[in-house]
Structures are given as C-alpha cells and as structure tokens.
Design brief:
Layout lengths: L1 H29 L4 H13 L1 H12 L3 H26 L9 H19 L4 E2 L1 H21 L5 H10 L5 H33 L3 H26 L3 H26 L2 E2 L6 H19 L5 H22 L1
Length: 313
C-alpha cells in the first residue's frame, strides 16, 4: 500500500509543480519578463518545487537524512541522467548562450560551499542563509544579464496563450501549491515506511526514490524542450534546477532545523555530485554538446546507481 501512496504522492507533486510553472510563466509574460529569464528562474525553480517541498517536509517530520539526500541525489540525476539523455536524443546542439561563461560557475560554487559547510558535520541556519543569498544573487545576475522581450515578441506569446484572468491564474496557483505540499507529505511518510519495512536506510531512500521522483519534472520539461529545438531552455533548466537544489532546497530545509551530513559516510554520493558538476563545467567550457558526452554522463549515472544498490544488499 505504501508503494501505491508513494506513486500517487509523487504524481501530485509533479502535477502541482506543473500548475505552478505554467501560471507563473503567464504572470511573467504579463509583466514583460524575457523568455530566457522565465526558463532559467521560474521554470527551474518550479521544477525544483517537488525537491523543496519533499526536503522541507522531511526535516519537519524529523527525517533530515531524506531531506539532504534528496537534494544531492536530484543534482546527480539532473546532470547525469537528464543532461545525458538530452545530449543523446538531440541531433544538433548549438546553444545561443555561453553557459560556461555565464552559468555553470554559479552551479559549481554552491557545491564547493556545501562541502566546506559539511566539515563540521551539519548544515546550520547560518549556512542556510549564505546559500539562499547565493541563489538571490544569481537571480539578480540573470535579470540584469537578460533584456526584456521585444514588444512584437511579447504580443505573439500572449496571443498564443489563453485569455489572462487573474482569478483563474491565482486559483490554479493555489491548487498547485496544495498538490505540492500534500504530495510532499505523503511521499515522505510512505517512503519512510518503505525504508523501515525493507530495512533500507532513509539516506538511500532519499538519494534514490525521492530524488528520482522529484527529478521527473526536470526530465520531462528538459527532454520536451530539447526535442522542440529549445536547447538553451533544456540545458538552462538543468543548471538552474541544480543551483536551486543546492541553495534553496538545502537552505530552506536547514532553516527549519540543522541538517546532519557526514563527509565520510556520504563520501561517495558527495563525490559523485561534485564530479558531475565539474564535468558539467568542463563540457560547457569546451562546448562538448554531443552524443559521446551524453554517454559519459550516463556511465557516471550507472556507476552511481550500481554503488547505491550494492550498498542496499
């Protein structure tokens, strides 16, 4: 029964996040915010909502291991699985944006900070505030770096969307948040019960089951964008989501209560996340957006899964 509840709860998380992303995008267009900023902030933050809700709910429920494992696992899934699939299925990848120059460093810095913060064995409230400031700085950078939509482009986008009605938009936003919050609660409770029943640690549940489920929005949106030729949005979503996971997901969770983390016990997962992020920086620096790069990312993903499953046996 817990498996059924878990699947339904993850579905509610994803549907709720989709509602919030769609309505937030419509509001952004209404106020003439550029499409890139929408993709890199609203969509990236929106697809990270399941991670945020699940991690905060886990820490409130006294399961901090699930909370931080979810964020670390989601970062690994996003880069190795999501980006790997994008590189393999897309025929020609020529992004207009220089991701190395403008974005991937922003994704690497919080990972390095997280490792430094973990030396004392936990992520505290002061650490959380620093991580949240970093995310705020990145959003300011994006807003300053990206111009507004041209008037004709804005009108074209608004014509394609349904008539804008504030009551409808706000109602769908509220429904979305209810789905996200409710889904997060039941996902954590059911996952914790599964862990207890099978003798699996909460860390493993968080790093595999919860993180994969909460990474599904990134997977669906990024792959869909890549198939439509919107590679900037697809890659930007992964980078933005990872930044949000390391700063906002961990930061907001740590504001609730400190998050314990061990550099020795969790060494492999932290090393995999760091290696994946460094590999992302290397690929963008050399513009290696190709199928061989995708295969390399999926090999790293396979190594991560194999090691985690071996630890369960």
């Amino acid at each position: 029964m817990d498996f059924v509840i878990f699947i339904l709860a993850m579905g509610a998380l994803i549907i709720g996040a989709d509602f919030i992303v769609n309505q937030s995008e419509r509001i952004a267009l209404r106020f003439n915010i550029s499409e890139f900023v929408i993709g890199a902030t609203i969509i990236a933050l929106g697809t990270s909502l399941p991670e945020m809700a699940a991690s905060i709910a886990a820490n409130i429920g006294g399961k901090p291991e699930i909370s931080i494992a979810n964020a670390i696992g989601s970062n690994i899934f996003n880069i190795t699985l999501v980006l790997g699939i994008i590189f393999i299925i897309t025929k020609k990848i020529k992004p207009h944006r220089d991701f190395f120059k403008k974005d991937t460093t922003w994704a690497l810095v919080p990972v390095m900070l997280l490792l430094l913060m973990a030396i004392d064995g936990y992520i505290g409230r002061f650490d959380a505030i620093l991580l949240l400031i970093l995310m705020f700085a990145y959003i300011l950078f994006l807003l300053q770096d990206s111009p507004d939509l041209a008037t004709d482009e804005l009108e074209e986008l608004l014509e394609k969307s349904d008539e804008f009605v504030w009551i409808k938009v706000l109602l769908l936003l509220v429904v979305g948040f209810i789905f996200v919050v409710g889904g997060a609660h039941f996902a954590i409770e059911s996952a914790s019960n599964i862990a207890s029943e099978f003798g699996i640690s909460e860390w493993v549940i968080g790093i595999i089951m919860i993180s994969f489920g909460t990474s599904l929005p990134e997977l669906v949106i990024s792959v869909s964008a890549a198939l439509k030729g919107k590679v900037d949005m697809a890659i930007g979503n992964v980078i933005g989501s990872n930044l949000a996971n390391t700063t906002m997901v961990i930061g907001l969770s740590a504001l609730v209560d400190k998050l314990p983390i061990s550099l020795t016990q969790n060494a492999f997962d932290l090393a995999t996340m760091t290696a994946a992020t460094i590999l992302l920086v290397y690929l963008t620096a050399n513009k290696l957006y190709s199928k061989p790069a995708g295969i390399a990312l999926l090999i790293l993903f396979s190594l991560f899964i194999h090691h985690t499953l071996q630890g369960m046996i």
